[in-house]
Amino acid sequence: MPRALPWAELAVGLNQEDIDLLLVSFKSFKIAKSDHVPCTVCTNATPHNTRKRLLRCACDECRAAMLYARCEWRGKLLKCEQQDLLDLSKVGSHVRTRRSPRPPRMTRAMQNFAHEMADQGLKPARIRTGLMRKFYLGPHTLLQLKVVQRFLSETVGANDYLDGLRRMVRETAFTGQEQDFDVFSFTWRTEEDGRPYVGSGADENPFLVGVSSKKLLRQEDRNPATFVLHMDATFKFNHVDYPVFVVGITDCCRKFHLMAIFVSSQRKEIHFSEALMALRKVYSQVTGKQLAVRFAMGGADDAQYNAVVRVLGADYEVEVLMCFYCVAAKLHEKTRKLHHSLYTVVTSGVHDLHFAAGELEYEEAKTRILNDWALHPGLESFKEYFKQQWLTGRF
C-alpha cells in the first residue's frame, strides 16, 4: 500500500475564479493524472464524485538543476462536480525558487470567449484573432494557434465539423465495387442502411474511421508465419488533432507493407479493438478469407496488447512481440545513472539478445548475460528488473 503524502492545504472551499488566481502565482506545472474519486470537498450527503488532478512541476529551472530526477514539488486539486468548490494542496518544495518564462495560457475569461465564438461556428484561427483583439494581446502574450486548437478539440469540440466528416465518410464507404487502387473508408459499426457509423468522439461513443484499398489489404494474404503485423499510433500526420493508428505488415525481407490507416478520437483499448475488428471485417469482404495473424508487434501499451489478444487471438494463437525501440528507450531510462562501464555491459548484452539467430542461441546468450551481470554488484537491481519485465513477462 503506497505511503500517505503529507499534503499541506493551501485553499479549502474556494470557487474556480479564486483558484485560477492562485494557480497563476505557481511556477510552471502540468497535470500528471486526472481521475474521479468520491467527493470530500463539499458537505452534500448525496454520493457523488469529485475531479482529482495531480500536478507536477514543469519548470525548466528545476529540470536543469536535477537532470536525472524529478522536482519534489507536487500539487493536488479537488473539484466538486455538483458545486463550484475546490480544494488545493501541495507537498514538497521546488529545487529552485527562480521561475522560468511561461508561455501564454488561456485564462478563464478567454475560455468563455472562445466558447461563444465556437458556438457561432468560427474556426480556431479566427477565434485566436478574436482573442487578440478582445484582450489586447501583443506578440509576447498572444496564444499559439495549437493552444486554441487543442482547447477547442478537447473542451468545446466545435472545430471538428462532424457533419461534414460524416458525409465524406459515407460518400467514400466501401461497397465492394472499387478497383484495386481505389481508396475507401470503413468502420466496425454501421448505420441502419449499412453505411459506416461515425461516432461523436465521446467516451461512450468513440470516433473511429479506417482508410484503405483492396491492393493494400491483399498484401496480407500470405502465410501467417512469414510476416509480423504492426500496429501503432502516431501524431505526426495531424499535429494536434486526433491520433492516427497505422496498421501494416513486415515481410521476411524486412519490408513494411501498409494495410490501413485509422483516425480515432482516443487511444484506449476500445479504440484499438474496434480498429482491429473493422480491419478483420473489411479484409474478409475483400479477400473472402479470415484475417490470420501469427505474430503481432506494437508499443509498450496495455491497450494495444489487450486489443490484439482479444480480437486477433480469438481464432488464432497470436504471439505478441515488443518493439525493440520501446525496450531500448526503457533500458536507457533505467541505466542512465549507471557508470559508463556498467552501461556498456548492459547495452552490449541486450544487443546480443536482440540479434540472436535462433531460440537456442537466444537461451545461451541469456544465460551468459545474466551470469555476467551477476558479477557486477551495481547491476543487482537492474538484473531483477530486466528478468521480471522483459524475460519472464508477457512479451
UniProtKB/TrEMBL annotation:
So which domain of life are we looking at? Eukaryota
Q: Where is the MULE transposase domain?
A: 228-327
List, alphabetically, the InterPro entries matched.
MULE_transposase_dom (IPR018289)
Descriptive protein name: MULE transposase domain-containing protein
Organism annotation: Phytophthora nicotianae P1976
